[in-house]
Design brief:
GO terms for molecular function: double-stranded RNA binding; single-stranded RNA binding. With 243 residues, the protein is of the alpha+beta class. It contains eight helices and five strands, in the order βαβααβββααααα. The termini are far apart.
Length: 243
């Protein structure tokens, strides 16, 4: 029924950030994934996780249970053809489990022999009545292809791109935070308590005291525009000569 699971997206690329709260796995199914299969996996996974928690609790004292006990929730999402897994210890984080099969997009999977090709042709003849959305399953297969390519490329380049990716993501996060702070009008106020203070001075000193009111307004407007460009992912406009 199930052939295995693969990490995709940020999990496989190993460059998740603190702002990331959703992680994706892809389950490979022998046949075309159906709603019935999705519900069965949901029930089995919930039982397995709860059984694991119960087994772990038996090795701890009653005093320790209140601080370490975990509760997992597994929900089906038929529209998105996936499962969502959450824990009470990290309620803001979600593990998204997508389903796919070599039957849907066999060219995305390697190591196929003649017997496998015949089996794929046989399975492709008819679709189950409760089959999951084919486009979403194809998307999951594409995620596997992307992750496999990235893994092969990184192994060849000694993790250089992973380090570079983490650096760029961290810089973008810091870049967004600075301009978001400035876009809130921090430079427009003349009150010491509301301004940017010079950390090198013993007494409160506004670092923007030399700016005129017009310059402060222009900087604030520019920061607001930059925040909008970041939100719309129009990074090429941020460094154009028109800005």
């Amino acid at each position: 029924m199930l052939k295995g699971a693969m990490k995709v997206s940020i999990l496989s690329m190993r460059h998740s950030l603190r702002i990331d709260h959703e992680y994706t796995l892809v389950l490979l199914c022998a046949n075309k994934p159906t709603i019935t299969l999705l519900n069965d996996i949901c029930q089995e996974l919930a039982n397995a996780l709860n059984k694991q928690v119960t087994s772990a609790n038996q090795s701890h004292s009653m005093e320790e249970l209140s601080s370490i006990q975990s509760i997992y929730q597994v929900h089906t999402n038929v529209v998105d053809a996936c499962l969502n897994v959450q824990s009470n210890r990290l309620p803001e984080h979600t593990i998204r489990i997508m389903l796919t099969s070599p039957v849907f997009c066999s060219e995305k999977f390697s190591n196929r022999d003649q017997t496998t090709d015949l089996r794929l042709a046989e399975l492709n003849s008819d679709d189950p009545t409760d089959m999951l959305d084919k486009n979403i399953c194809l998307q999951a297969a594409t995620e596997i292809s992307h992750s496999n390519w990235f893994t092969r490329f990184i192994l060849h380049h000694n993790n250089t791109l992973v380090v570079l990716g983490r650096l760029l993501n961290s810089m973008l996060t810091l870049f967004r935070a600075v301009f978001t702070y400035m876009s809130n009008g921090i430079l427009l106020s003349n009150e010491i308590t509301s301004n940017l203070l010079d950390p090198c001075e013993k007494d409160p000193v506004n670092v923007a005291s030399y700016l005129t009111n017009k310059q402060r307004s222009d900087v604030t407007t520019y920061a607001q525009n930059i925040v909008r460009l970041i939100a719309c992912e129009q990074f090429h406009k941020m460094f154009s000569s028109d800005q």
